[in-house]
Design a protein that fits this description.
With 642 residues, this protein is α+β, with helices and mostly antiparallel strands. It is built from 24 helices and 18 strands. Strands 5, 6, 7, 8, 9, 10, 11, 14, 15, 16, 17 and 18 form a 12-stranded mixed sheet that branches. It has a 4-stranded antiparallel sheet with strand order 1-2-4-3, with no helix packed on it. Strands 12-13 form a two-stranded antiparallel sheet. Strand 17 and strand 18 form a beta hairpin. It starts with a strand and ends with a helix. Keywords: Hydrolase, Lipid degradation, Lipid metabolism. This is PLA2c domain-containing protein. InterPro entries: Acyl_Trfase/lysoPLipase, LysoPLipase_cat_dom. Pfam families: PLA2_B.
Length: 642
Amino acid sequence: MFTISTPHEEIQSPIKDHLLPEPRANGCCVIGESHSFTRLHKNNECIQTPGKRGIIFCLNREQTAAVLLVNLTVLQDYTRTMSASKPQESGEVRITHSLHTKEDEFLVERRKTVFKHLEKLKIHCSRDEVPHIALLGSGGGQRAMVGLLGSLVQLYEEDLLDCILYLSGVSGSTWCMASLYQELDWSTKLDTVKDKIIERLSGPGVSFTDKLAKLKEYYKKDIISLTDVWAVMVVTEYVKEIDKQTLTDQWDHLSKDPFPIYAVIDKHCKQQRDGDPWFEISPHEAGYSLSGAFVGTSSFGSQFDNGLKKKQQPEIDMLYLQALCGSALADEDEIKKFLLGKIIDFLKRFLHKKQLKMSEKMRKDPKDPPVEMYYQVLMDLAEMHLSVLNGEDPSHLDQSIRTTLDDLSGGKHQLIFPIEQLNLTHKKDAKHYMNQHTEDVFNNLSHCNSFWTDLKMWKRIFECTNHWIWGRNYDFLHNMDEQKVPAALLKSKMRDYEDAGLLLNSPYFTALRKERDIDLIISLDFSEGDPFMTVREAAKMCKKLNIAFPDVPTIPDKEEKKPKDFYVFKGQNAPTVIHIPLFNVVNCGDDIEAWRKKYGTFQGSYSAEMITDLMKVAGKNISNNREKLLKEIGAAVGQKKR
């Protein structure tokens, strides 16, 4: 890698363009004069850009390069893309309230499709009057995943899907989106695509061997968090695959599908109520929806400093993206219990004879203790954490850990913190003890060098669990001097991103960007509990942020428990919002609570029969309201004309 120092003197006189000459024998070239220069260090070689105007790098025997600044923009572009081995494509940081040029280009073509389809539906308008319609899928785990699929299938059957410009989701809805966009032009063949998805979702799932390999692959990244663990141990249980594609792999600029946008939130901004928490990821860029700060999607997760890429990281794959978007299945304690249970199950599987045989072959010295002993300590430690969360005495697990560690070390090492210091009646003190105890256990295990590689991975997993670290990635805005962006987003080297459902369980703010000029929002609500919470909260948040959004009138108490299947909210200079609760009196009759209980968020994967039944219920919300949908689409056209 290169080390580049920032120019500290301004150019004193203009420099004319020069074609780049060949370097002299001593490896130096002179093409102009400037008092401003950058020093660049690499192995002794000459770097230049043949045939390019305006910039050249020339190295002398001291391995120093003088960079003549003819055009600062060229320099910035060049320094973003150069690498020690070969040029790397670098996503630039973009600070502007405008759409990515490729999104704009796609929308031009997509609007043509929508225009033709509106004509087919007898909704007449000019090309300039084509309404911008966004379909939003809320969170709700696999209920949202299957519910969105059922809704989209029915939109396809009712010949309405080609009216949609954008498809955006949070949490479980993004699991459905990820499956759909594996197939190019899925919206033109949804009858066959949905069969493939249903077959997979009701199938056997991912093998333990593949999960373990994926976990180790994620560990090789610069940064690992619980999102990686959640992807491997939880998301795979629901989506039944490891999707190694990336978002940029999936997308084709000639696609006939709605433009996809995945929504998450910035955890720090949410907690500190400082900055812009709304974060979106599209095929072209990722960034803050309201602040207008973006980076190329392929570079999201790479390390930046002052807008320049310092270290490339692999683009996040679709499995990780689904975990990043979909991890809020319950409150923190419940998720922690659920995740610890998954970790314990994972470790138990590792102790299976087949896995032990594989691990035993990896031992460097036959005299080393059996690998089973190390994993037994980890499993006891995870179960101890779970017992403490449940308020149960973990003394027997602590004793098991101490006994095994004593056998491993031959009595040479002892744990520092006695179990008597654990105070289960005080939650904060118990958490502090377990953090110390966990570090103590891993310090003892670290003396077993033959196990070091896996040990470091598991140590990091337990650290992330203790400190509740999710979605940690490099901050692409780090160290930038940009007044248009909230200062909080510029200070940290890393940011944590998490499920948007923890703040608002629907991706309204991806659709409410002024640049997208959305006329009609169709909100499919798959939330558990209050069926109006998302639209109410969206209205409140928009009011505080001075974003145009229709008022949401008071809903009668009776309807909160037994909602209708179709609500329309309108406001002046605001997009119309259609709100469709999944379970309602029309498609469920008096059995709404039974349906909600059957499809709870916090449960195992659905059977094929459950998937089919839920898709039918979700589909009825579209088929029963086809004429109402057409009416509101027509009204959006009328609003455009005015």
